[in-house]
Design goal:
Chain B: Its main location: membrane. The complex is a heterodimer of chains A (299) and B (306). Chain A is mainly alpha-helical and 299 residues long. Chain A has 13 helices and no strands. In chain A, helix 5 packs antiparallel against helix 6 and helix 5 packs across helix 11. Chain A is elongated and about 75 Å long. Chain B is mainly α. Chain B folds into 2 domains: 61 residues, no CATH class; 212 residues, MetI-like (MetI-like fold). Chain B is globular. At the A-B interface, helix 6, helix 7, helix 11, helix 12 and helix 13 of A face helix 1, helix 6, helix 7, helix 8 and helix 10 of B.
Chain lengths: 299, 306
């Protein structure tokens, strides 16, 4: 019986990766069919454009104090009114988009970076490495909600950078757990054995051959986590532990607006609406990504 | 079951030691010398050295951690820098309000979430289903502190139905519980819907229908009971977010609970209170997780917890 073997290089994932554009095309087709996800995507895109163009589209200087015109309700000159220092709320909100989105992206990057490394090591090496890392993850997950971030900010001091770090640390166990699970599945696949038998070292196997194949759940989680990170960071700023005056961060603006809830409710309303719509955008876009990229994760 | 609970309690020990270690390490990150912080500005070197010896700060970090663990085990969480009272006593004085708020919120989460989820599942693709799912999507996206302020504005300031702030009567509880429970209710509604939809497609539900049972009996007695298992897990997970969320909601509604105690302590750099508060909240969360696992067992006898 004649058995034909495929040339060795055809069995390697590097060649298989050539088929990836097809996979991404399928994903994009699925995503486009999901109208709700597209709405979410457009909301996120809208805010990204605002963040980039804030200096161009903001009608006033967000820091310019004008006490004569303080606490003015929405008007033709100030579409969203002015705050207690006479600053234009719309301009502050537009500039605030940059801050709130940056906090979300940096925090998720920190969480994803360390979470991915921990998850890959834990899932790939198993044994005591897995035991130690899994216990660390268990411990980090034992802190309810944003309390871990709160404790970190209390130690490092209240400012926006420390909030990014604190919210990032809060996200590490979530990424680590997902990456660990995916790594456990992928490392058992035959192509990993094949690569190992060709003499590839652990570093190459983990970062070149396992990591690209577990990207889907990571992308989905990162998108969902952006929503949580923006909410958590805004919450910390609301408590006065994040962005400090005069920074126009949305949570801090809301916190300032709460003092004028009876006289100028719009001061709290607009930043709240901005946070809600952006978080909603990330949530529904994340849902759509999950359905298109990783249907098994669908609830 | 008893053996399982004992084993789970034993498994909790390393997690709790880890939680104590993380809290201890975070406080080690505080810039500057805690002894200088305690002694205040302009204190003599002698006073600072004395405080350092008193607090054991002159000893190696591992020894300090060991002392901290033994102190925590005996309920000694240190002394508040602000009030000079034992941190444990301060926390215990504030804990009842937080527990009441958490229970009221979990009630909102479970009742609102399950009712909405059941309606959604039993009337799949109807206008009610679509509306509930859209509201649920909004529910998970609203910042609780903004929802709280909006509720205060409409229901306390405009309509004057509920008090603006404080704690004590059922009227004080309504708005904070809705504020804190809404996000959880949205998640439970989505979970209940998908879980119920999975169950109603099972053969035994078809059999129940073929037997001519009333729809209500099928939904509430047969379907819901089996759909409860994943719902319990979600509710259990929500409790963690809820405990964390009390920090914000207590600040919005000026409730003298544990969350507000922690936030005030952070503002006043009262680190022993922050340390103790975070620790106690985490310990409660770990025990709630155990309770969720036990309930899981109760509702699903097929799970072999051993």
């Amino acid at each position: 019986m004649k058995v034909e073997f495929a040339p060795t290089n055809q069995a390697l994932p590097s060649k298989a990766a050539a088929a990836r554009p097809g996979r991404w095309r399928t994903f994009y087709r699925k995503l486009r069919k999901n109208k709700l996800a597209m709405v979410g995507g457009f909301i996120v895109l809208f805010y990204i454009v605002i963040a980039l163009l804030a200096p161009v589209i903001a009608p006033h200087d967000p820091y310019a104090i004008d006490l004569v015109n303080k606490l003015k309700p929405p008007s033709a000159d100030h579409w969203m009114g002015t705050d207690d220092k006479g600053r234009d709320v719309l301009s502050r909100l537009l500039y605030g988009t940059r801050l709130s989105m940056s906090v979300g992206f940096v925090a998720v990057f920190i969480g994803a970076f360390f979470g991915i490394i921990l998850g890959l090591l834990s899932g790939y090496y198993g044994k005591w490495v897995d035991t130690v890392i899994s216990r660390v993850i268990d411990v980090l997950l034992a802190f309810p909600g944003i309390l871990l971030s709160l404790a970190i900010v209390s130690a490092l001091g209240p400012n926006l950078f420390n909030v990014m770090v604190a919210v990032g640390v809060f996200s590490i166990p979530v990424f680590a757990r997902i990456v660990r699970g995916s790594t456990l599945t992928v490392k058992k696949l035959e192509y990993i054995d094949a690569i190992r038998s060709l003499g590839a070292n652990d570093f190459t196997i983990i970062f070149k051959h396992i990591f690209p194949n577990i990207l889907s759940p990571i992308i989905v989680q990162a998108t969902m986590r952006l929503a949580t990170a923006i909410l958590s960071a805004a919450g910390l700023s609301f408590l006065g532990l994040g962005a400090q005056p005069p920074l126009p961060e949305w949570g801090a603006m809301l916190s300032n607006g709460r003092d004028f809830l009876f006289t100028a409710p719009y001061l709290a309303m607009f930043p709240g609406l901005a946070i809600s719509t952006l978080v909603l955008g990330f949530n529904i876009f994340g849902d759509g990504l999950r359905d298109a990229l990783d249907p098994r994760m669908k609830q | 079951m008893f053996v399982y609970i004992v084993r789970r309690l034993l498994q909790m020990i390393p997690v709790l030691l880890g939680v104590i270690l993380v809290v201890f390490l975070i406080m080690q990150m505080v810039p500057g010398d805690p002894a200088v912080l305690l002694a205040g500005e302009g204190a003599s070197a002698e006073t600072i050295a004395k405080i350092r010896t008193q607090l054991g700060l002159d000893q190696p970090v591992m020894v300090q951690y060991f002392h901290y663990v033994t102190d925590v085990m005996t309920g000694d969480l240190g002394t508040s820098l602000r009030s000079n009272l034992p941190v444990f006593d301060e926390i215990m004085a504030r804990l009842p309000a937080t527990i009441e708020l958490a229970i009221a919120s979990i009630f909102v989460t479970v009742v609102l979430g399950m009712v909405a989820g059941i309606i959604s599942a039993t009337k799949q693709y109807s206008a009610a289903d679509i509306t509930i799912m859209i509201v649920a999507l909004l529910g998970v996206s609203l910042p609780s502190f903004w929802l709280g302020l909006s509720l205060i504005y409409y229901f306390s300031v405009k309509l004057q139905w509920f008090p603006v702030a404080g704690w004590g009567t059922w009227k004080h509880m309504v708005l904070p519980a809705i504020t804190l429970g809404t996000a959880g209710a949205a998640i439970v509604a989505r979970m209940t819907r998908s879980s119920m939809l999975d169950v109603v497609r099972q053969d035994y539900i078809r059999t129940a229908r073929a037997k001519g049972l009333r729809e209500q009996v099928i939904v509430y007695k047969h379907a819901l009971k089996n759909a409860l298992i994943p719902i319990i897990t979600v509710v259990g997970l929500q409790f963690g977010f809820l405990l964390g969320g009390t920090v914000l909601v207590e600040s919005v509604f000026a409730i003298n609970g544990l969350g507000r105690l922690i936030v005030d302590a952070i503002r006043m750099r009262d680190l022993p209170v922050v340390q103790g508060g975070v620790l106690i909240a985490s310990v409660i969360f770990v025990f709630v997780n155990l309770l969720v696992d036990v309930l899981y067992r109760y509702f699903n006898k097929r799970i072999d917890l051993n």
